[in-house]
Amino acid sequence: PMFFRDGSELANIAGKLVPHPALLFVVRNGALFLRALPHNRRPDPDTRLAAAPYWNIDNNGAVCAGTMRIPKSVTVASISAWQQAFFQSEFTHPGGAGRLTKRNGGTAALWKHLAGKNNFPRSMLIEMEPLNEYLRKLEAAQR
């Protein structure tokens, strides 16, 4: 389930089950970045990523921490803690500039459509750069 702030345009689907795309979580210097994957399998360096179509994320994949309880460690063992922190936070606002989904009406329309469904339509993902380019970009931005 996803949780949306009371009074937001998605408050009426808060707590409902929705399908999600396969996701790539990247943590750099305590900040969380998120991209969607085209298939539910481990990406290789040349796998083309997609924008993660969630609120609280900008078009570079940076997650606005908001109500997220950020895990203290950044290790392989803490991966599930980062995932839980993201999904248990309150989604409060659409992301920054740029489209995060091909769905007409943007992310709000996408999540309204998906409430109660079983499968995430990969056709709604916006293709981005390959994994190796994305990681280089994140590393360069944080220097």
Strand line-up in the sheet with most strands: 2-3-4-6
- Largest sheet properties: 4 strands, antiparallel
* SSE class: alpha+beta
Q: How do the SSEs run, as a string of H and E?
A: EEEEHEHEH
- How far apart the termini lie comes to 36 Å
Determine Rg (CA atoms, Å).
Answer: 15 Å
The percentage of residues in β strands lies in 15-25%
Portion of residues in helices? 10-25%
Assign an overall shape: globular
Number of strands: 6
Helical stretch tally: 3
Average pLDDT reading: 90
Q: Give unreliable regions as ranges.
A: none
Structure commentary:
The chain contains 3 helices and 6 strands. The mean pLDDT is 90. It has 143 residues and is of the alpha+beta class.
Keywords:
single chain, 143 residues, alpha+beta, four-stranded antiparallel beta sheet, two-stranded parallel ribbon, 20% helix, globular
Short description, anyone?
Helices cover 20% and strands 18% of the residues.
Q: Secondary-structure map with pairings?
A:
Elements: E1 3-4, E2 22-28, E3 31-37, E4 48-51, H1 79-87, E5 90-91, H2 106-114, E6 127-130, H3 131-141
Parallel strand pairs: 1-5
Antiparallel strand pairs: 2-3, 3-4, 4-6
